Amino acid sequence: MIKSSKKLISSLLHNNLKNTSVLRNSGIICCYSSNNQNNNNISNQDNNNQDNNNNQDNNNNNTNNNNKIINIQNVKGTHDLFPNEQRIHNFIYDTGRDVAERYGFKEISTPIIEPFELFDRSVGEGSDIVMKEMFKFKEYDPKNIGSGPTICLRPEGTAGLMRAIINESSTNHLTPTQRYYYQGAMFRYESPQKGRQRQFHQLGIEMIGDEHPRSDVETIDMAMEFLEKLGVDTSKTLLKINTLGDSDSIKAYNEILTQFYQQNREKLSPISINRLERNNALRILDSKEKQDIELNKMAPLMNESLSTKCRDRFKEVLEGLDCLGITYEIDQSLVRGLDYYRHTIFEIQIIDNPSESQGLAILGGGRYDGLANQIGYKYKEILPSIGWASGIERIALFLNEKLIPKPIKPISIVTTFPTLSINAFKLCSDLRKKGWPTMLSTYHLEKENISKQLKKVINKSDFVIILAPIEFSTNTLIIKNLNEHTQSLVPLNDIEDFLLKNNISKI
Ligand code: HAM
């Protein structure tokens, strides 16, 4: 690569761009997961170099500190998002925003730290999330250590959003439907693996205040639209849907399940025996323990416990989906792992058999009519609500990379002559103020010769402006198009016209 760069630079300098392969091969290939290492490209190499430099810096610092060499790794299950990955996340967020706004939703942000009690009461004390996956700690009070309230990093966004709405008190069961969307980091102490992290990101939507079955259909339709706009291959996904019925149906089902698990108590994992003792048999159904999974295959299904009203409601939801041409599979074993759900629940899963992602949920949601009352809603009426959240890291594994906008490449400015460095600096500043992303090849224009400067910008820019002494003395600049291997002499006054004509985008 270095050899080819040298060749390229010398050909650039002599205005003789015969060696075109280097540039042709430098197109950015989008690369998300570490599995794509074979696709290694120049921008990733840049990242790696940056990584190595950072590590070196760290190591130097660390060596000075107590003379010990230590290597500080990121916390298990967390991930640094370098620009290429951040760009993919941003594409998912931007697409989600566009879709949500089109359906009349508005963005909201709630804190990452919340009182632990919020999730204990809503997601449920018997859920996997609350029993095993919370990052929780005592709020620090230096005067009385250990006395503070227990707070936690949020494991999901729905409960926090409902808490915010209740506290704000402008929403009640009589106000018109409220539509919100949000995005951000969530935290669950899980065993990290592909598509499962301890810090991950969600984009979610919540519709508060409507109990009509068509609101279920609309939110599901929105989820499908979101995935379609991201270019997720729908032949590899499946919408699974089920109903839990209302609180009475859930209570009746819990009793039937309790009986079943009592009879098979010796086959249960210790954590599920605990759930059984806390009268929380429903949560055993979504246990990830191997021995529970085996037993759950024989557990009675929800269907029998549903009232006619609940069945009719579900039928109406399915008819709505049929009407919009949304395909689904009714999965009576789907219960979802959060206590707040009522009636419709759904998940969009990967069905890429026999891939290791088989069954992985990229999006999940449902109706949670009882949640507000569980966390301090001051009215006795229910606040009917429905929503979903999608896992950004998981979606990133399955979207169409061709749809991701290419990274913006700034124009580079180089100069062959040290005394022109101040002019280069000024030009750079002027172009930026007019909206063109621009950078100097280096601040050390005096120290680095032209080939070094050009080498630095080869993969970073499509256009390079060169301030050369002879041309600059007649107020003219040299502009090189690194993709087309052409060069133009452009009068200083015409530079904006040139950039506009060449479709160099402004920001
Ligand atoms: P959830 O199914 O727990 O639902 O999470 C939603 C999505 O977040 C999952 O489908 C998955 O894509 C992603 N996800 C969950 N855990 C992880 C993880 N450890 N690593 C990577 N991705 C993960 C909820 O959170 C509900 N609040 C959804 C909802 C909104 N229901 C109603 N409104």
Structural commentary:
The protein is an alpha+beta fold. 38% of the residues lie in helices and 18% in strands. It is built from 18 helices and 16 strands. The protein has helices spanning 2-13, 21-24, 42-64, 83-102, 116-124, 128-132, 158-168, 213-229, 247-263, 270-277, 290-296, 308-323, 371-374, 392-396, 421-433, 450-457, 469-473, 495-501; strands spanning 106-107, 113-115, 136-138, 150-153, 178-187, 199-208, 237-243, 329-330, 342-350, 361-367, 385-391, 411-415, 438-440, 463-467, 476-481, 486-491. α1 packs across α16 (450-457). The two termini are 31 Å apart. Bound molecules: histidyl-adenosine monophosphate. It catalyses: tRNA(His) + L-histidine + ATP = L-histidyl-tRNA(His) + AMP + diphosphate + H(+). One of its GO terms (biological process) is histidyl-tRNA aminoacylation. Pfam families: tRNA-synt_His.
In brief, what are we looking at here?
This protein is an alpha+beta fold and 507 residues long.
